[in-house]
DUF1416 domain-containing protein (Nocardia callitridis), 101 residues
Amino acid sequence: MCAAPTQGQTIPAGVDVEKETVINGRVLNVDGQPVGGAFVRLLDGNGDFTAEVVASGTGDFRFFAAAGVWTVRALSSAGNGSVEVRPEGAGVHTVDVSVAK
């Protein structure tokens, strides 16, 4: 069973965003409404699977990663979508993923 933390926009207490690279955002449908329950995958610069979380009921997701090139891909009954993000260092990097059929 997956032990992924509860997803949300609030960074957990104790996380030092001066040292951690955080990729977070929301999964949204074509109307801009949140898509809860989407499977959100983090792929590395080669397109290889790195991690997966389930978006919260409000479409929120969060990954702790490293600087580099990443693709965030969302898969849901409302459709699929992906977006590239290139964090250059520590901090919170926010990116929304739009999904469509």
Summary: The domain at 30-90 is CATH 2.60.40.1120 (Immunoglobulin-like).
